[in-house]
Amino acid sequence: MAGILVSAATGALNSIVEKLGTLLVDQYKLHTGVRGEIKFLTGELTAMNDFLLKMSEEEDPDQQDKVWMSKVRELSYDIEDSIDDFMQDEDDKDAKPDGIIKKIKHILGKVGKRKAHHQVFQDLKKQVTEVAERNQRYQTRHALSKARNLTVDPRALAIFDLASTLVGIDEPKAELIKLLIDGVSINRQPKLVSIVGSAGIGKTTLANQVYQDLKRKFKYRAFLSVSRNPDMMNIMRIIHSQVSGLRFADTEAGSIQQVIINITTFLAEKRYFVVVDDIWNVAAWNVIKLAFPKTSSCSIIITTTRRNDVAESCSSYFSGNIYGVRPLTVVHSRQLFHRRLFDSQENCPPYLEEVCDQILKKCAGLPLAIIAVSGLLANIKNVLGYLCLLYVSMFSEDSFIEKYDLIRRWIGEGFIQKEDGYTTHEVGERCFNELVNRCLIQPVETNEYGKVKGCRVHDIILDFIISKSTEENFITFLSTPIPTTGIESKVIRRLFLQGVKEGNSTIPTTGLDLSHVRSVSGSFVEMPSLEKFRHLRVLNLHDYQRLGEQNLENIVRLFQLRYLSFRHIGIRKLPEQIGRLGCLEILDLRETDVMELPASIVNLRKLSHLLVDVGVKFPDGVANMQALETLKLVSVSRQSLDFLSSLGQLKNLRNLVLHIRFNVNSDTGHTNVIGEVISSLCKLGTQNLRSLTIMDLSGLLQEPLCLPTLEKLINCSLAIPQIPKWLSSLKNLQQLILQVDGVKQDDLCMLGALPTLLILHLTQRTESRNKLRISGEVGFRSLRIFIYDGNGVSPVALIFAAGSMPKLEKLKLVCHVNESDSPSFGIENLPCLRTVKCFVNGNDGIVEAVETAVETAASTHPNHPSLGFWKGNSIFFSRLPSFD
User: Fold this and answer.
1) In whole angstroms, what is the distance from residue 315 CA to residue 152 CA?
2) 115 and 218: one domain?
């Protein structure tokens, strides 16, 4: 995938070639000798880069090639460090000195530096030549093919988002539900079933499907993963948080015993449903089981494990059952493989049937193996995003990996390169989607708009990634106790600390050279001085509560830093000299106590993503930050008029979140503030603004705005009286989330005329008796998702006539009906419908009539859409749950 997915084999070669080109510009005043060395290095390293890309496509390069590739990769990192030091030295030159003596010393210093610079590049040339002479087989070749997939393949999402449509799932799901529900529990204890089977056979998928089908019958429920090396305190707090609805931060207790008491006290005499996934040993279960009271015969528990002794221990405690997951049959394996690879269950070309059967035989009926292999084959012409994939090994097993944070860290590492017409963030999202499409990462927490919020990595694939990361010295995994051999002799490029327990208060790095570390992450209690990380690019301090004042000040010395996260750290202020971090691209200050940014922050000319919380005050001079693409969020009432006016000068700003709330007792002047905001928004709207979220308590959207470039508009907090007429000018709008007092037929006609609208979410806040009819004449020719939320109080009859919303796939309705309303919404007239969710309130008779009509329409619809139907406090549910 040219320009998007970078092979780990190339190390830092791409970055080096770009920097060497920068060095050749006039600003560095290089003399002829140094220029010659740079040109030589550029040519040689470009050739090496192309050859390594070619070698990375080989299935099994021989040992000599592997050794040579490793040497080139390590050399590339060393060269980049040397070039970074050289460029920083040039940038740090003092201003011309005063006085004759100081001037003479300055001139002599420049002469000395020139000689030193020449020596630096001569040494680099010598190293490159020596490596090249060891292997004469490299040559310039075109290696990367053009990217095809720019979004998540719907076939890949179907594996996870619509898991109940997986082949072979219906029979085991029905068997498992029967074991859980049928009959009376022994001794009035909870019903338990322990699912056991080999890795990748689908235990978690099966448990999740049953959980999704049954969870809404239980008010108190939880689904959690344990994994190989569980933090039991963390596990128990997760259980407490999920079953009680408390925030995780509010579940803190002095000991595991106290957390268990809190859970059992809360669940006493309550019906609960808990899934404990991926238990690796009996010891972990012996702790977890104590949290579940034995006094409820109406509660159910599911555990999953790959070990028979664990399954037996689980089942014996509650006199439960063991369910062994079977591999897929040959027929089901073939259906799954063909669906993923050929976009069909049957459409396998005859000339491929024999090889496909051979592949399936190797997969032995394991769904994960079938999905992963078919995912790789589906895009075989594309180069794997190897660096991006290896970087995922820096996350703990079973951890939730936030999508956008992962992309930002890739950007900070330099793995993602900007392409014409696309920002680095957009290119990073394409890389993420590519890994999803290949089933190398599993998408989780898809929101109701179909957007993937994050991912996890199956432990089998994670083991593979970790082994490759270690083999290629991509990441150094440091655990406690520290290994006694091997670490000291390695050059550490990326450091991940794992396995730190309470009592080990320091990171075990004594004797290690940290000067070449580019990224540091992990669960450390205390880290060494940041002065040791002179070439650090990515610093993730998320949740590190012991950040000392000295380390905080030393951050400004990390001149190569690209990514910096203070998220969920109790710091109150940033270093005043934060503006010295000239390479910084991403700064995350969410969930901190920072309320004001230092003036020097406007000197961060490369900063593209700035993330802060409500109430943070920005300094004036934001117009200097022309690289900004994301600004979340701006508390308007805290800013000066100069800042609000300068906001409109950020020509590259694409994603903006505004919080608008004024103190009713404060001085007037709101009109001037809103005027500056409107002026800036209209300027941004004619440049690059793509996404605007307004947490609005002022009614800003009632004002006429000019935002022709906008693709996403979200209105939160306060409902506006009516849908603004100026929305009709948003010809590029793809997603609209709006809260209004009332929706009229004319409003639907106006929105239906928007040519590119894909997602529409309307929330009506006040009661209305308007009858809304959607037909082919209304429009909505491109709409895929429609959510209408009448808050259960508005007796609105919403009817879909023939020809309406021809591409709609997902429909969610929350409304009140009365006797005069039609019992049917007309969903049979939506030809592409796949998912329907209805929450209907009203008289029991009419609600039952609506339920019957919707059920009938769904069953007779050619697509047989999945249906979720709520009526008051009861639930009718069939097929797949919603797209939450």
Assistant:
1) 40
2) no
